[in-house]
Design a protein that fits this description.
The protein has 20 helices and no strands. With about 425 residues, the chain is an all-alpha fold.
Amino acid sequence: MSFLLISISYFTERFESTLLISQYFLLFGIYLYLCLQKEKFNVREIISYAILFRLLLIILVPNLSDDVYRFIWDGRLWWDGYDAYSILPSEFLKRSESAKFLFEKINSPEYFSIYPPINQLVFIVITLFDKLFASIIALRLLIIFTEIGTFYFLLKVFKQLNLNGKSLLFYAFNPLVVLELVGNLHFEVFVIFFLVLCIYYFNQKKKSISSLSLGLAISFKLFPLIFLASFFKYLSLKDYLKYIVLSLFLVAIIFLPFIFSDVFKAIFSSSTLYFKNFEFNASIYFLVREIGFLAKGYNIIGTAGPILGLISFSTMVIFNLINIKDMKLAERMMWTYFIYLLFATTVHPWYILPLLVLGIISKYWFPIVWSFLIFVTYWGYTESGYIQNLSLISIEYISLIIFIVFELFYKRRIKKSNSYA
């Protein structure tokens, strides 16, 4: 497993599709074997090996994603006295020719930064180091420490729910988790940590700490706002309103230091583009888009994206208002997030990682299966750009839906058998 992890990370380019996907499939096969053998490990061994695997990537310059360069770009802008929310990279390049080296590495140079203030604070910290490589190492160390925190609180949540602590292996050894969080430095790592923290303290009946934890998750990536609906069935109306207010109040405090910047304008502008322009590995949206091509003769993302967003929001609210007996908080959050992903116009591989951890807590296998299937989206990368492969995307989602139906049927059958026992 170590050999494959090193090979796929250090010696494989993103556009080498056959080699990349083949190595990932082998890596995932070993992961599944370890999952089946989890009883042969103790929890201390699982944590130790998981940390060692992550440390293998300590000096890696991300090879599958270029997001880190935008992180560093934003951080350096703040140090140079510029508002990272108010100036486009393409505009800044006209003022500073020395920025050309980093500019050539960033994606979306014509878009304002979409990253919330707490992310910007992290960018500022890691760019204390003038060297690009040093900033990457600093961020990776922070992410590894956060992962260790996730291990610790996941074990506590497992104990609360009477789950086997060795199930930590399902998360800690998952190749997509290691490659996308530690390897490619995506900030879902912080969302996952605070969501686990949120669930743990909610189960402990420490609602205020749980609410603040969710607020921190929202502060890193705005999408955890959808999870506020998941708490409705577990609290009185008064306590539920308190929970929401406290969570959003923390978000507001975190935004406060940037109140005089163009943070709201930039995030609104980039978020609008997210729903109206960006499309990657979608499911329902791609079906709607094809209907649009047949009916209108052009890409209808400008109208379909926002409409699907409203349908997604309504579906999530209705789902969380329905009184489903015996559904635990983590499972409700899992299905809420799954609804969000189904209607999204963009679903990058690392987007599903919060779903993975919620699924593991809820004893569902389909998020693990998706973490295998979704890697095929890397097939479309070339040296000059990306080409959507709709055939592979169709296989991905059809296989996923079939497995979900099978898993739900199996769980229902087991539950019915137990009720007659």
